[in-house]
Amino acid sequence: xxxxxxxxxxxxxxxxxxxxxxxxxxxxxxxxxxxxxxxxxxxxxxxxxxxxxxxxxxxxxxxxxxxxxxxxxxxxxxxxxxxxxxxxxxxxxxxxxxxxxxxxxxxxxxxxxxxxxxxxxxxxxxxxxxxxxxxxxxxxxxxxxxxxxxxxxxxxxxxxxxxxxxxxxxxxxxxxxxxxxxxxxxxxxxxxxxxxxxxxxxxxxxxxxxxxxxxxxxxxxxxxxxxxxxxxxxxxxxxxxxxxxxxxxxxxxxxxxxxxxxxxxxxxxxxxxxxxxxxxxxxxxxxxxxxxxxxxxxxxxxxxxxxxxxxxxxxxxxxxxxxxxxxxxxxxxxxxxxxxxxxxxxxxxxxxxxxxxxxxxxxxxxxxxxxxxxxxxxxxxxxxxxxxxxxxxxxxxxxxxxxxxxxxxxxxxxxxxxxxxxxxxxxxxxxxxxxxxxxxxxxxxxxxxxxxxxxxxxxxxxxxxxxxxxxxxxxxxxxxxxxxxxxxxxxxxxx
Length: 495
Prior knowledge:
- The protein is α/β, with parallel strands linked by helices.
- It folds into three domains: 1-29; 31-312, Rossmann fold (3-Layer(aba) Sandwich), CATH 3.40.50; 343-493, no CATH class.
- It has helices at residues 2-30, 34-44, 57-62, 65-72, 86-99, 123-130, 137-146, 164-168, 171-174, 183-186, 220-235, 250-266, 273-276, 282-285, 295-312, 322-339, 345-351, 373-382, 404-412, and strands at residues 51-54, 76-78, 105-109, 238-243, 269-272, 357-363, 416-421, 426-431, 435-439, 442-449, 452-459, 462-469, 475-481, 487-493.
- It is elongated.
């Protein structure tokens, strides 16, 4: 009898273990991989990062950890997520702290801190923020707190209180994906951008005025911001608050100005990029009307933060780390891939605000670009230097435009040749479109006659590139790989 009872018990345990394994496997396979792909490098090696960036999509699109490493040797991860409220930022940070590791510095963006709702994005945004984390006590507490309000609904009017189970057991959400599974579901690819996302595009921003007014701490976001700062200080984690740049409304600026009092109360630093109004140029650096930053804007913000972190915090230098170097090579390939075959001229020009990619840009004598204010501004932006002045206020001005030769060519109705040599840091401007230039990637010989351009590059006495184009284009570009000096792409645009 005892043997039969023991045998039944063993069978029951084996059955439960097998069932749990099947459910776990099905959950892992059917789950959408976007959240995992974005966060896996951090969760798999959490102690490798000294700085974490948290916040919503404005942070996701504005800070590139790979560029921080390349330029400043800072090991960081962008752990922000689309649609995050401050309560969601608090809880995802607590999951990281309690189950993985604590960084030396936490950078918290305060956009939407004045919201009085614990969840402000869509239900998909909430899944993006939470799905990457295995079930834990802290995750259960997060779901209970964020979705405990019986009146909070998602974008479809569903009550979050009724959806909590699908965040605890995601198989209930994704079980119907069986017919949509692909190779990535079985072998997920991981981002090489360390959580960041390149937003490629250029949009006209909304109008704005700068205000220095402040108000009361209205909104539950302020409560969770204080809780997050206090938790960091108990754990010995330094805190930097940011209000990343976008053309903010008066109400949004009043809320952000109020954060200054919180920063002072806790003795933490606060960079309000909106009030600075000088780091990015909204005419060239906005990806959409809501003013997420595009590639150009993110490069400027990342560089500003890199210099600020270097000057204000004692962070280890990881410049010689081989693993980071390998990841950066992959990130660099992603940048080149964005340029190669880029069909939109505005996007291509915004991607050229990058001191690692050289370019040769040729405009014909009657190019329509000369009559387009946005395109001319984007051309100027390719060579624009970054501004780093703490606590300064200076509106962007046309005086910051560095390419006077471009303006001369436009005024004279002449062709123009621009050579952006990132290897040497030199910019060459040739009105008329013909020039011979010694560059870091070889001797460039450009000859223009009767509207036709002949161009060659020689290095070490050997011709590495030749182009002879009898057709007329508004703009032609050569993209040069900054690592190898080889031409990576040839682009032509007609407006």
